[in-house]
Design a protein that fits this description.
Layout lengths: L9 E7 L3 E7 L32 H18 L5 E5 L10 H15 L4 E6 L7 H9 L2 E5 L5 H7 L8 H9 L6 E5 L1 E3 L13 H14 L3 E5 L10 E3 L2 H13 L4 E4 L1
Parallel strand pairs: 2-3, 3-4, 4-5, 5-6, 6-8, 8-10
Antiparallel strand pairs: 1-2, 7-9
Length: 260
């Protein structure tokens, strides 16, 4: 099984299907995974298989390494389209996430003012005031909502501790539109079982879409599996399925993109 563990605190730049040339910012340890989810489709593998031995980078380390990389990119004439908080788990788990966002915006303004600051988050920490306020400052506040069905969430996303999807939705509404919803659609079954992971049918898409409309995001991104997954038996959603979901979102008056 192939997995991807990212360097910390800075990796790339890489080409993102959704964001363009992206300079990655990984606030988790460089040798393992720290996440409040344990998704069966995660390219970084399962949490228990990648327990880190190194600490999270400090706020100072993140700022210093980011500035060094931006200085290099400026000298080479290759500026990033976006500075993306992603990596080996959930970035908002970092105890100084809010302060690091402030540092990143300052450095972006200094070295590459046309670049966007993006955060890819699983939404589990957005009820925290300091996380909410920090995400209000970034250009692309990209929050995960794979479904609104609790059984499916527990089967596929494997949240650690208590996860209340209704609470997550209310916290998403509190961004008053400053939010991009990101949803993984896929097919198949969990290998060795008869448990389907197909969330492309109306049983899932209908309630999800009604919730999306209630949240009223600025944009929706629907996507599917791109790399090898730690759980076998998972399959990509088809182009036709993603396009149909995308078109339903657009018909509801919300911009939507599909990544295959």
């Amino acid at each position: 099984m192939s997995t991807v563990i990212y360097n910390s605190p800075i990796f790339g730049p890489v080409h993102s299907r959704r964001l363009g040339i992206s300079l990655g910012i990984n606030l988790l340890p460089a040798d393992g995974k720290v996440c409040s989810f344990d998704c069966i489709y995660c390219e970084c593998g399962f949490n228990e298989d990648h327990r880190p031995t190194l600490p999270m980078p400090t706020r100072q380390q993140v700022a210093e390494r980011l500035e060094q990389q931006l200085q290099k990119m400026v000298a080479e004439g290759q500026l990033p389209d976006v500075l993306t908080f992603a990596g080996n788990g959930e970035p908002t788990c970092h105890p100084h996430f809010a302060e690091i966002i402030d540092d990143t915006i300052r450095l972006r303004n200094q070295y590459c003012p046309e670049s966007k600051v993006s955060v890819l988050s699983n939404s589990t920490m957005i009820h925290r005031p300091e996380v909410h306020d920090a995400l209000m400052k970034v250009d692309n506040n990209i929050l995960k909502l794979d479904t609104v069905d609790p059984t499916y969430i527990n089967k596929v996303d494997h949240p650690n501790g208590t996860y209340d999807v209704n609470r997550i939705v209310e916290s998403m509404k509190a961004f008053h539109g400053h939010i991009i919803i990101q949803t993984m659609f896929m097919r198949g079954v969990i290998e060795g079982t008869s448990e389907s992971v197909d969330n492309t049918g109306d049983e899932y898409v209908g309630p999800w879409l009604e919730t999306v409309k209630a949240i009223a995001p600025q944009q929706v991104m629907v996507y599917t599996i791109d790399r090898e997954t730690p759980t076998r038996g998972l399959q990509k959603a088809t182009h036709e399925q993603l396009d149909a979901i995308r078109d339903r979102v657009i018909a509801a008056g919300i911009p939507c993109s599909a990544s295959y």
